[in-house]
């Protein structure tokens, strides 16, 4: 695995990126699975109204401003920024063979696009997280040797298979500027933590689940387990 | 244990070992005496308690996807109303 791509640097992505870089920079250097190149991808700018929930240093493009402070902290890593939305025209260049992808976007259209692209790769690991007000889930989609090791994001998720929302690349400036529905920092943090959990398990050769649900109101976390398949 | 209210009486005798496990998202409930209930009845009765929305359209019985909610349960299955993926981030 050569690179880590982080798609979406909002509530989930902006809280995930620093601990992830700590893992990449300071974990077992003998583990060849640990990439040292990080690609940050987001076409939006940070907004003041989101400061309670999102970690940022300036009201500028999310990918570019995150790169600025991350590369000061993690000189061991090669960090790049792509200030764009992932779409069908650029996805081939943005997400490549062998990538580990952390997907923390806010729409199923992008989840569908990225999952479909990963399905065309021989080797990739896609860790996708999303939430509602008090609950959410993380899905782990691994491709190895041209085969699905775990199911794609659309498996048993018709809302991702046929999304009714739209890719932000297709929205007008007015539509993009509209405030989204309320979210909670602690819920975004839970998604980010579960995504990092899944990555660390994968790094260490464990892969007992391909999806995990959580509900902060009940305190429950439930993995969805699958019999592992060999490539 | 949660006891469901239904207008349709079960047609078979319940046994002491009947235990239906109902799953939705991170949450589970175990119910006794569900022999003869349909999947639709379980959904309707647990809708609020387990937050089962109308958009929970994928239904799994013992891990296999079901097409018809009118199917009768034998009371010992795992019944999952698959929760849609979180959309926001």
TrEMBL record, chain A:
InterPro entries: ThiF_NAD_FAD-bd, Ubiquitin-activating_enz
GO molecular function, one term: ubiquitin-like modifier activating enzyme activity
The organism's place on the tree of life at top rank: Bacteria
Record field: transmembrane: 184-203
One Pfam assignment: ThiF
Keyword Transmembrane applies: yes
Residue stretches making up the THIF-type NAD/FAD binding fold domain: 3-147
Keywords for the protein's UniProt record, in alphabetical order: Membrane, Transmembrane, Transmembrane helix
Protein name per its UniProtKB record: THIF-type NAD/FAD binding fold domain-containing protein
Record organism: Candidatus Yanofskybacteria bacterium RIFCSPHIGHO2_01_FULL_41_26
Lineage: Bacteria, Candidatus Yanofskyibacteriota
TrEMBL record, chain B:
Organism: Candidatus Yanofskybacteria bacterium RIFCSPHIGHO2_01_FULL_41_26
Domain of life, per lineage: Bacteria
Name of this protein: Ubiquitin-like domain-containing protein
């Amino acid at each position: 695995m050569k690179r880590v791509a982080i798609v979406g640097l909002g509530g989930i992505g902006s809280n995930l990126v620093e601990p992830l870089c700590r893992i990449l920079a300071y974990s077992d250097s003998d583990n060849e699975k640990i990439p040292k190149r990080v690609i940050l991808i987001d076409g939006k700018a940070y907004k003041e109204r989101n400061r309670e929930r999102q970690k940022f240093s300036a009201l500028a493009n999310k990918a570019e401003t995150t790169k600025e402070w991350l590369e000061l902290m993690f000189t061991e890593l090669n960090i790049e920024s792509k200030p764009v939305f992932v779409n069908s025209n650029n996805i081939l260049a943005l997400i490549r063979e062998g990538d580990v992808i952390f997907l923390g976007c806010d729409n199923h259209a992008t989840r569908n696009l990225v999952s479909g692209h990963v399905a065309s790769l021989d080797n990739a690991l896609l860790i996708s997280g999303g939430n509602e007000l008090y609950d959410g889930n993380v899905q782990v989609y691994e491709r190895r040797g041209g085969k699905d090791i775990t199911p794609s994001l659309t498996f048993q998720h018709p809302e991702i298979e046929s999304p009714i929302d739209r890719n932000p690349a297709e929205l007008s400036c007015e539509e993009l500027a509209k405030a989204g529905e309320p979210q909670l920092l602690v819920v975004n943090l839970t998604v980010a933590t579960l995504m990092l959990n899944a990555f660390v398990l994968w790094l260490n050769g464990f892969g007992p689940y391909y999806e995990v649900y959580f509900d902060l109101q009940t305190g429950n976390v439930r993995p969805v387990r699958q019999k592992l398949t060999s490539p | 244990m949660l006891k469901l209210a239904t207008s349709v009486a079960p047609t078979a005798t319940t046994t002491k070992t009947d235990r239906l496990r109902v799953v939705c998202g991170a949450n589970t409930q175990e119910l006794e005496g569900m022999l003869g209930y349909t999947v639709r009845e379980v959904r309707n009765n647990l809708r609020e308690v387990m937050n089962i929305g109308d958009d929970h359209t994928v239904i799994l019985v013992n891990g296999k996807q079901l097409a018809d909610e009118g199917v009768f349960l034998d009371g010992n299955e795992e019944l999952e109303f698959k929760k849609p993926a979180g959309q926001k981030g």
